[in-house]
Write a structure and sequence with these properties.
heterotrimer; A alpha/beta; B alpha/beta; C alpha/beta; A: alpha/beta; Nucleotidyltransferase, domain 5; 2 domains; four-stranded mixed beta sheet; 21% strand; C: alpha/beta; four-stranded parallel beta sheet; 19 helices; 54% helix; binds adenosine-5'-triphosphate; binds iron/sulfur cluster; binds magnesium ion
Amino acid sequence: MADNCFAGVDVGSLSTDVVIINASGKCLAEVVIATGLNGGETAQKAFDQSLNQAGLAQEQIKAVTATGYGRASVAFATGKTTEISCHGVGAHHLFPNTGTVIDIGGQDSKVIQVDERGRMLDFTMNDKCAAGTGRFLEVMAHRLELGLNELSDPLNIKGETVQISSTCTVFAESEVISLLAKQTPREQIVNGLQRSIVNRIWSMVTSIGIHGEVTLTGGVANNQGLVLVLEEKLGKKLNVPENPQTVGALGAAHIALRGYHK
Amino acid sequence: MIPNRKKYLKQQAQNGQKIMGVLPALYPRELLWAFDILPAEIWDPPGDILRANAHLQATICPIVKRGLEFILKESASVNAGYLFPHTCDSLQNLATQVKDLIGTSQPVYTFYNPKAQFNKTTRRYYLDLLQDFQTTLETKFGPLNRAKLMAACELGSKIDIRWLTLQNARRADQLELTNPEYFQLVRAGEYLKPEDYLTLLNQVEVQAGPVHQSNRRLLLSGILPPHEETLSFLDELSVTIVADDLLSGSRRFPITQLDTPVDPFEYLTDRHFLLPPCSTRASNLKERIHHLQKMISESQVHGVLFNIIKFCEPELFDHRFLVKTLKQNRVPLLSLETELLPGISGQDRTRIEAFIEMLDEQVSG
Amino acid sequence: MSLVGKLKYQFMKDIGAPALMSLKDLKQHRKRPVSPAFGPPLKTNKRLKEILSRHYFLARYVPGAKQVAWVTSGAPVELLRAFDFYTIYPENHSALVGAKKQGADYCTIAENDGFSQDLCSYARIDLGHMLSGKTPAGKLPKPDLLFCSNNICQTVLYWYKAIAHELDIPLIHFDVPFVAVEQSEADVRYLAQQLLDMIPILEQFTGKVFDLKQFEIILKRSQESSQTWGKILELMQAKPAPMTIFDAFGHLAPVVSLRGLPVAQDYYDLLLKEVDERVNKGIGAITNERYRLIWDNIAVWYQVRYLATFFAERNMNFVTATYTNAWAETTGYLDIKDPWSSMAKTYGQIILNNNLKHRLGLMRKMIKNFGVDGMVMHSTRSCKPYSVGQFDLRKALSAELKLPAVIIDADIADERVWSQQQIQTRLEAFCETLEDTTLG
Ligand SMILES: Nc1ncnc2c1ncn2[C@@H]1O[C@H](COP(=O)(O)OP(=O)(O)OP(=O)(O)O)[C@@H](O)[C@H]1O
Ligand code: SF4
Ligand code: SF4
Ligand SMILES: [Mg+2]
């Protein structure tokens, strides 16, 4: 195995993801673990697992690009790039016709415009408030005593809905509490919540614009109900990768590869 | 070496200097100088906001909150009252809130800045305002000495001219100053006596050729520059801010050099109406974008950084339009929103880095 | 302006609109039940509805017949009336959208176009309307001209600047210096001169010649409407008060937006008569008025009904408000013989353009004259000039007059800001203290 390999390590606020590719871009390993208290250690752990998975020794990895909010803590990285660029590049590799990328992660959501070569043309990012992120949904799931999978059920979206008008997580939570007190069915509340998140994301989408195909990345892309609402709003299908959480790491691996050959 | 704001003002107060606390942003500084008053401007005094929260809603901008927090502390360095220029709705109300409801041991003065477009009527009114302000100050500080006013205008004019030179030098990358250093220099004018400020400006060396040779040149727009840590972070990324459109910066200096003052009030009036377009003076949007575009091309920047203060209506209204137009003209830009907290957030680091990655890709083609 | 357009407008104004609208009246849907805590409703309510729907209805026939101006609530509209503009009040329209609980929809349109969520919701709603053409009022004519005065806030100036730029139409701005201490001679001169400067501009824009005689008639009418409005409000000093301030929020519309037109004067004569009658007969707005309250700040348009019922059911009535009073307060300065300077004084000293010492004095007087037992302050996210200082106004009034008071955080027209749970709790606590102190 003389092949040169490249890794991308995305230390996100909730998940740490590693992708290893070979020189022709083929994916050899894909790992997702929860980000622990120590981002550096988690990164090392995820990296070791991915080497294992691919059956590679560390020397075979010629370059490692770190990304995500913990990118600076990855000691073994040879370069670092923001997750904004990485999600753009990753989405471009999976869906080459992508013009707009929506990344909804645990604490941040971003909308990115890329050109036909995957280069970033414009981007925007949510403000400090968590409304419009995965974290928001987790808080609400907890409040509704639902698992993430139940919350994501696309069936919830089909039925009636309620208006969750607050744009602030704390107020939205108290709205949910009073809806529960009024015996509002949980499906309706979930429906309302999914729609309120999408409204939050939507103002970012309009500020960047819809260019060509739209690709959804980040863990929240696993939420099928939300995907449906977003598609409804968009009026067309979204590209949803099989493993949306690792798109950032994939982009990082490609950036490592590209940098190595420069 | 730039003297520390707090220490300098304390020292001045101990020397018996009259010091007036001045809130943002535009006022006839020369008139105060002529009364031997040192204006000490209050933009973003550091520290926690505690007491001001009992007087102001959560949705009021941090400049107003910090201003009130400072006033409530009754700093010994302010001994000649507070001046509230008319800048925006929030500061307008804060002035009367402090004066008529909360109260301070210091007198409170106000100065209206006309919001109408420039014409004969507006000009005439500005002259009246100067006259009325003079009368108000005279009742407290004694008769105005015309010769002193003349001298103040001449000194102000020298500062303006020197400032213009340095600004051009910065654009040509001829100042060996980091981003924080450059803005410390700009902001020293908020509290130094005019003669000290002029000395300081004259000490700055203008190099013969470019010093940073940076291919990451930005224009900064907003009310205030970002926090020092953010400015340093830009240096780390080899980004140089070569031009500014800040209310606390270039928006307070005339666009062009004025003739030497002949009649002080005429001079101050001309100077006021020759300031660059600004949201707080309700300038026309066409003029604002024209001015920005001109700065962008003259200083050959690669992009624009907006530093927006949370809840600032004047800036936020114009911001939407400026962003829209600049994007249409394919000028890369990044907007940061600040609540004037110290340090730099992880989110802002990511935003800035991503912005630079984007610029680099676009520059490298 | 085309002759056909003018004829069509005239026909609709005199015959078509009333006829079509009475048809619409027939299909009026069932009314929601009204709490028994309320007294008999004002008969004039019906007339108000007619006037306002007719105004919005007629707006469709205006293009081609009259020039249209969008005007801020504090602007000296009399000058425009002298040039026969058809006027639209965007603030009024935004309040209407808010009352229909559609504020958030319109705000979102503006926000998606780049306007910050932190801007005044009247502005966001109107910009949302401008960007989308949407309105619950059928159809609004596009403005030919904008007329704006910053005597209510600087916000309107930014808002109108944005429209002027977007639609590429002229903006006439009346710059009104804030009264930090008192109006100076220079202020009055500046204001009067600006008005005079506008005449040739308007003459050129409309092709009409300014007619001073006609202008004086309009000014006089406008003053009469304001004065009559003032008298109506004063009648609310009676116990029980003949109407609630929530009624007054609605009856305010003509003095804001139709001021200077005969229809407004006729309307207030009618309303005055009815209110006067109610006072004489002792008919109250609520059946059992035990506590009298003052309201501070603009209405929470999407919750007027909820608030009115909440208080009525607790035998509490709002008998006065700084907001409704604003269009009557300074009209005494108006002097037909000296129109320019007197307009400078009238428009330059309205409550939002005056210092907080003035506001404190005014509120103190209202509390005394209207026999007020408690105060509800609406701290509104949208409006800095109305809201900055409220905390200290409250402190001063409670301390001095031992007045129970509560502040609720909400917004005039963006219903997303409303937090039902939090507000209900605060209001209930307020009612409890009120019952305590006034009994004990
Ligand atoms: N199966 C699933 N169904 C629904 N939601 C899911 C699922 N899996 C993950 N998520 C959501 O994805 C989020 C995490 O996404 P991701 O791993 O992309 O975040 P991150 O990269 O760590 O965060 P950030 O990019 O904000 O730093 C979680 O908040 C969770 O709510
Ligand atoms: S930041 Fe904006 S809102 Fe705050 S004081 Fe300055 S101009 Fe006013
Ligand atoms: S609500 Fe306040 S800020 Fe908004 S337009 Fe009215 S006066 Fe101005
Ligand atoms: Mg992520």
